[in-house]
Amino acid sequence: MISITEKPIDLNDVLLHSKDDSAGATALFLGSVRDHNDGQNVSGIHYEAYKEMSQSVLLEIESEVLRKWDIKKFIAIHRIGDLKIGDVSVAVSISTEHRSDAFEACRYTIDTIKTRVPIWKKEKTEAGQHWVQTK
Amino acid sequence: MTQNKQLQIIKVKLFASFKEIVGKSEVSFEIEKDATVSDLKKILLNNYPQLASQKFQAIYAVNHKVADDSTILSVNDEVAVFPPVSGGI
């Protein structure tokens, strides 16, 4: 299951959809908005998406992961819009038979989301707002 | 006598800093049939030279796939230009 959403990510719902009787392991990764970056205080982040392409790319990533590992449940959700400190911006939850596959597939998914899904963040700091450049 | 070249209208979606610099979320250009992403780049920069001073490199996507300079554009293609992605955490 993949999703790009303006609404807060419901973690209970993520865990509920991660359940599978044949899975012995679930790896859950959450990315949240932190209060600082590059030595500056951050008060919030605005996420903008090219929604249609983001959904296609997330589906591509899901297919890649399903090919590489024996996946029982795959969930990747990215929130967009105005987020406050502590808000969850991205959730990846992967259920597999054993833990090593769950960890590996979860790591691959979040790393790939960060490099391929067309979503941009604009940080709000004391000095104003600016788009974050990829390092 | 030179033959008139056939033209097509290509719409281009803009995102993030590119959208702010141009002040629009979509622009359209009349370009020759069989024009490529490389041709579109030149037209975009001619019309919006402020994009050239951008510190971000531009990524072009055609029908939701990242496109290279040689990709040929057709009238029904969904074309987009945006800076490198920076989502996640």
Rounded to an integer in angstroms, the radius of gyration calculated over CA atoms of chain A is 15 Å
Radius of gyration of chain B: 14 Å
Strands of the widest sheet of chain B, in order across it, are 2-1-5-3-4
Spatial shape of chain A:
elongated
Indicate the percent of residues in helices of chain B: 10-25%
**Poorly predicted residue ranges of chain A:** none
Number of helices of chain B: 2
SSE ordering of chain B? EHEHEEE
Write down the overall mean pLDDT of chain B.
91
Query: What is the percentage of strand-forming residues of chain B?
Result: 25-35%
What's the tally of helices of chain A? 3
| Number of distinct beta strands of chain A | 9
Q: Give the oligomeric state.
A: heterodimer
Query: What value does the average pLDDT of chain A take?
Result: 96
Structural class of chain B: alpha+beta
Termini separation of chain A comes to 29 Å
Task: Give helix % range of chain A.
Answer: 25-40%
Write the layout of secondary structure elements.
The complex is a heterodimer of chains A (about 140) and B (about 90).
Chain A: E1 2-5, H1 11-18, E2 25-32, E3 36-37, E4 40-49, H2 51-68, E5 71-79, E6 81-84, E7 88-96, H3 99-116, E8 119-125, E9 128-131
Parallel strand pairs in A: 1-5
Antiparallel strand pairs in A: 2-7, 3-4, 4-6, 4-8, 5-7, 8-9
Helix pairs in contact in A: 2-3
Chain B: E1 7-14, H1 16-22, E2 26-32, H2 37-47, E3 59-62, E4 65-66, E5 79-82
Parallel strand pairs in B: 1-5
Antiparallel strand pairs in B: 1-2, 3-4, 3-5
